[in-house]
Amino acid sequence: MFTLRYAQTVLYFGINALEKAREFLGGIKQVTIATGKTSARLSGALNDVEKVLKELGVSYTIHDNISPNPWASQAEALAKAIWEEGADAVIAIGGGSVIDAAKVACVIAVSGGTAKDYVRGREPKRSLPLLAINLTHGTGTEVDRYAVITLDEEREKHGLSIKYPEVSIDDPRYTLTLDKKQTIYTSLDAFYHSYESATSNVRTLFSISMAREATLLITEYLPKLVNNLKSLELREKLLYASMLAGISIDSGSTHIIHAIEHVLSGLQPKLAHGCGLALLGPRAAYYIHKAVPEDSALILKLLDPSIKPVTEDAEKAQKVVEKFQNDVGFAEKLGDYNFTEQDLNTIIEYVLKRLSYLHANTPFPVTEEIVKDIIRCAF
After folding, report:
1. Are residues 23 and 76 in the same domain?
2. What is d(CA 61, CA 47) in angstroms, rounded to the nearest whole number?
3. Pick from 40, 47, 29, 90: which is nearest to 65 by CA?
4. Which of 174, 193, 212 is at the close of a domain?
5. 169 with 208, same domain?
6. What share of the chain in percent tops pLDDT 70?
């Protein structure tokens, strides 16, 4: 087990890491716990949290209505419950969806406003303390300042910089109940955090370093994990990689792959985030490698040492990413989620007109033709 202090977060990583959160919980009287429907209980994390809270004499209520690709209305309802219950702190037990919704709710509960206000640029003034207990090895949100939320009426999914958790828990035991699909999806999410943060216009030496180490672990251990899902040792390696990738995007940011995926899963919430990234990633790698071959090759050489830092290897970059995904068992298509070519114009409009960070962070001019090509290759 180790303790990492990064930005405004203290992260405890390892078996039984929750025990380290007792100091944080010691002076608290009332807690609101945010979860999804099943994973918090199934993973064992919720049982562990309840045990600690009872031993410390902390009162709590559980709100288990946060869905994958969470809606703004869910974060606002959670904020209302937090305020009405007079909570001193919030505990989020889940993957990115639960933790992100809790981040937004922690701000709204004491700073007011709506989720849309913060999406549109309102600055948080205050927030309640948040303990984030991560259940996947993909999100990275337990160590970064970002949250992703979907505006209900517009069906627009947005990322916003809003809050770091005060304390986070990464215990690999809680990832053992991820099934094979979720294991693949979440790990590929961490891979694309790494690849995009190392190739974005705001990349840094630090983001590139974190991205390379995360990718090294993912490429070595994910192929083993998909054939041995109950390996705690392998889960720990992937969880560590995911955490590094989360720090990487906090320093370097995502860009085109995440931007298009946010539109897709905003329109179709049943599309898992990591799955959407993997559908778009190989073709996007072609354009990324063509634009910044040296930075792209720093990451992709860990998948295939023969790839060169030259624009002529752009097609090879696409094939390298595609092969890696196929080798770990990813074989889905965009059509599996009821998307058709008739949806292209709507998707392109959302991507190009409503996501400002896309143009700022992507290392090449994003055109309608490029977005259309990336999406079409996902079918």
Report:
1. yes
2. 13
3. 40
4. 174
5. no
6. 100
In terms of domains, do 165 and 187 share one? no
With a threshold of 0.90, does the pTM exceed it?
Answer: yes
Same domain, residue pair 68 and 153: yes
pLDDT band at 232 (very low <50, low <70, confident <90, very high): very high
pLDDT of 355 strictly over 80: no
163 and 280 housed in the same domain: no
Residue 249: which domain range?
178-376
